[in-house]
Amino acid sequence: MMVSITHASSLFLLFSSALSFTPCPLLGPAFPPFTLNATDKTVASALQSLTEAFDTLVATNTGDHGDVSPNTTFSIALFSSDPRDAEDEPFFWQYHHTAPAWNQSLAGSHTANKDSIYRAGGLTEVFTVWSLLLTDGGDQILDDPVTKYLPELVDDTKDQDAIGHVAWHDVTVGQLASHMSGVARDYCSKDGTLQESFSEARLPTLPATQKPCCGNCPKCSGSEFIRHLANETPVALAGVTPSYSNMAFQLLGYIVERRTGKPFSKVLQNDIFDVLGMTATSIFAPANPSAGIIPVSKEVSGWLANHGADEASTSLFSSIKDLATAGQAILNSTLLSSSVTNRWLKPASHTSNPANSIGLPWVIYSGGSYPNTSMVDVYTVLSNEGYNESLYSSYLGIVPDFGVGFAILSADTEAPADLNAHADIIGDVVLEALMVTAIEQAAKNFGGAYKSSAINSSITVQYDTLPGLYIDEFISNGTDFRETLSELLAIADPADLSIRLYPSQLESHFTAGSRQAFRAVFQDKSELADYGTPTCVSWLNLDKFHYGGRALDEFVFELDQGGRAVGVEIPALQVELRRK
């Protein structure tokens, strides 16, 4: 498997502004949750443009993000956290392309559709981590040392040197899941002694090995095999640098088995696939290949790969319909609690690329361009195992801030496709439309004047092209509260005080509607920016100023059943304002 993220989206050009002021938003959604309606004018136009963009890509095999292979067959789905958007399907848009060369295939289906089954390879990792989080204790296991569950790992290595052997007692379960364990990339399957080309390279003769490589046979399991893994040479010290490892996920599969007392494949089948109705998904190839997208032949494509050691890392076969179902379930915390999901969809480490972070097992692309925009994190897994492994590639992306995601499955007759160009097109077209939709709905549902019927208190909520809503006029009991805040913040001119509102994602629901909490970020628009090193430290000042035990930056909106704000409470000022 190869993991890479290079794409950048033009959506953030949307926020380029002639205004000299640059807000410092909070991390997370810049606007309240919005309803994604595929028939909405903005979204429908974007989806039409997306279809046209892919039509052009497959017709010309090139585009703004580079060339693509004419031999790639692929399927794409866009899904949302709101199941109403998808009607009878778990996605709101789909696209399929069957390459002209596909009639050379000797098996499987010759036409790609939503039910077509591809080898999804490295996307298995998402389900491995998911199954781990579903065990008793949830994500509390992530801080446990690996040796708590696999004590065999230290039996033969505790007295070995740190360069030649992994210090297993220092490796945590979470580090295995987040590419931070420092353990070897692969066990056995990539060993040069198994490659025919190496026999002519005049390398030293090696003694016969007893290494159990588990190729095309029942899964390797048990303490003896784990001891073989224990003696692999480390790549780095645990916790110091990301280093991709299939072997780490193999070990996670064993931990799931130890925790549940069931075979790993049964855990995925019973606790995820069956529960979510993912009928086209399996560990290793399905017995019936009739729905399979199989380039050239079963043997050449990698369809028949059944390496037991890869069960928890690269064994998955699935369709875009099933992957959309899974993505929707992750966004909605269908199988996990929302608190565990929130922790799961967070970075574990930086990478050497400032636009990428690492999660469990996510590669997180941080979009945006501070100071003009909010950051929007895209949680992705890209699988491309290489031409000598299979002819399949796959891509899963989740955007928690927007409650959307995408799934791409592909197969090529010559080499596995680089799907970054496909993901780039989605980012260019769809995310921009969703941001526009978020602004439009925020303006409709929250914008306007709010006034008290009892005293002379009011605020006016406005919007512009910058992240977040903002408060313009602010009167408290007959006084200009902007002046009060400006004095508190040592801002000379009240006109220079920016008060922008961002959702804290704290919500309560009741029969007639809901309440949503926001936090205000106070900034001095005349303050000099750091030259060449823009900083954004609004998080340092949240909840800083209180009155009567409640924060001055807290605003709680009351919404009706249709999601329209009808009032706002400012707890610190002990006032409730109704929308005019």
From TrEMBL:
The keyword Transit peptide does not apply. Residues 438-579 form the Beta-lactamase-like ARB-00930-like C-terminal domain. Residues 107-427 form the Beta-lactamase-related domain. The keyword Signal applies. Keywords: Signal. SUPFAM superfamilies: beta-lactamase/transpeptidase-like. Residues 1-20 form the signal peptide. Pfam families: ARB_00930_C (PF26335), Beta-lactamase (PF00144). It comes from the Eukaryota. PANTHER family: BETA-LACTAMASE-RELATED DOMAIN-CONTAINING PROTEIN, PENICILLIN-BINDING PROTEIN. This is Beta-lactamase/transpeptidase-like protein. It comes from Aspergillus keveii. The lineage of its organism: Eukaryota, Fungi, Dikarya, Ascomycota, Pezizomycotina.
